[in-house]
Amino acid sequence: MSFEIVPLTLCYYQAEKGYMTYMAGYGQSIIRPFVVWFIRGASKNIIVDSGIETQDYLAYHPGFKDLELTHVQSFEQALASVGITPEQVDVLVQTHLHFDHCHNLKRCVNAEVLVQKAEYEFAMDPAPFAGIYRPELWEGANLRLIEGEYEIEPGLTLLPVPGHAAGGQAVLVETKSGIVAIAGMCTSQENFYPEAGHPMVGDENTLLPGIILNARDAYESMKRLRSRCDRILALHDPDILQQKIIS
Ligand SMILES: [Zn+2]
To answer: Residues of the chain whose pLDDT is less than 70?
Structure first.
């Protein structure tokens, strides 16, 4: 089976680049899009991450109210562009439960929501990370807690990639051009495909995410991810704005 991946950007802003690149890029800026990914060609309606809309981002915390976010489309409009409504989402994969990835989770009222158990457990007791996890965003939803690797259907596999978040998961998607991974950690393409000679690049040509719970785990996850696919799609890359379908 081969699938297509349709990135649907809800909003974006010009952000500090250091959010993406560990010990590098501080004081520089990068466009960070907030994205819902539609998997075309599956037997059910499957999306990856439910994302966040401009107004919800600005209202999330008083400190965010002056962010210069650019609205692209609502969650409903994004899904309508691929021919479905939030009610018609059958499976929602949450790469992780940071608020910007799951704010629309409960609008998918009929969806089974696939989350790694490790992520759910951490998100319910996040201590220093409490600001980025809000249980009311998923409480009462039909969550299915996944432990480890999991095949949604042949050609669509969840792969745990802890490090950025406690229980992050990537989605490996079989496409005509090979296996494409939706990264499962907040990164731009530069993290996986850094410039030659970049001072912070470790071996395996890996530039760690700027926001990390555990750097060693993130590194191992990036390495594992690279070994399992032909191409990696970072969750917050500026190029996503072009909305090109990946097939
Ligand atoms: Zn993120």
So the answer is: none
